[in-house]
Amino acid sequence: MTSGESSSIDDPAGRRTVGDFIPADPALIGLAVVSVILVVLGGLIQVRFGAYNMSFPTVVEAVSNPSVLFDPKLLVSFFLGSGATTTLFGSEASLRALDTATTVVWTIRLPRVIVAILVGMNLAISGTIFQAVTQNELASPFILGVSNGAGVVILVTLVMFPGLSTFLPLFAALGGAIAFGIVYAIAWKNGTSPVRLVLAGIIVGTVFQSVQRAMFLFAADIGTAQSAMQWMTGSLTGVGWEQVRMAGPWTLLVVLLVLIGARQLNVLVLGERTAKSLGMSVERVRLGLAGIGVLAAAASIAVAGVVSFVGLIVPHLVRTIVGSDHRKLIVGCLFAGPALMVVADVGARLGLELLGASGQQLPVGIVTGLLGGPYFLYLMRKRQKIGEV
Prior knowledge:
Blueprint: H1 3-6, H2 18-21, H3 26-48, H4 56-63, H5 66-69, H6 72-80, H7 82-89, H8 100-133, H9 146-160, H10 168-187, H11 194-214, H12 222-233, H13 241-260, H14 262-268, H15 272-277, H16 282-304, H17 310-322, H18 326-354, H19 364-382
Helix pairs in contact: 3-8, 3-18, 4-8, 6-7, 8-13, 8-16, 8-17, 8-18, 9-10, 9-11, 9-12, 9-16, 10-11, 10-16, 13-16, 17-18, 18-19
């Protein structure tokens, strides 16, 4: 049996192989290695600094502490919650045996890095999908208004129905889907064009952003208003294991679905006429893939708020390295997205401290906006036919 036959994951004839989903490519491997290094280094820096500063050896020792890594009760408590721990083991996990550094790292700082990884994955995947579905290199969940639409529904839930916060990803997906539907309807004129989609997205995003600001009038107290402000700007301040548990399952579902749909994305970018000639039900596939993109953006927004431009920057950077094959592009984004988010969050957390403002943090959405705004302008100027509507 050949290696290709042994790696078959589909039918007995071996017509589908692992390479059909994740093709081997030196550029992709290099990108993955560099991205992992950036995530590890950024994560260590993120975990080290704070009110309780630690040396790097102490951080490494705390992260790799066997008392946590080999304690299934603690791990279940972190990743699944105390309820699951009680159900499986009959009692809750205890942190009393852990030293201070390990407790700080595992209960406060490490979850923030994990949330940044999940957010980076989701936004990069969402941007890749929308760029393929709309055949528009300028598309992203932020540019197309999806992020602001999801943000409105999240703010409504937080301000008026705080008891339903467990279902934030589903509510965010609903808001994002509504926003994308409005954008598509506005841009439709015997078909759509890249510029019309971008302009419609900016219009819809601006309207939803105004609605977000109006929600402050209904905030019951200053704490709710501050929380709403964090959602609008995109922030990882204060996130913990609850947010990991909220975004984790949806991220796994999105990754599985988008890897399965990578071939359909490759066909869509060939053009609607070509896709139909190959037997594809274009509108049905486009709608299904857009749904995955909305869910990916919603899972991110539900835990970090509206983080702008990550879904625009990452797919472009990865495409220049691994090419336009979505089987490789998606895998590259799964590594590069977390790298960008973790590094941006390090800048958000430590940037003001380096300028002398001790204890102050920038929302990570401001950092990604400062990076993404000029990059978006560069992409627009690069397109020779940007003025054709």
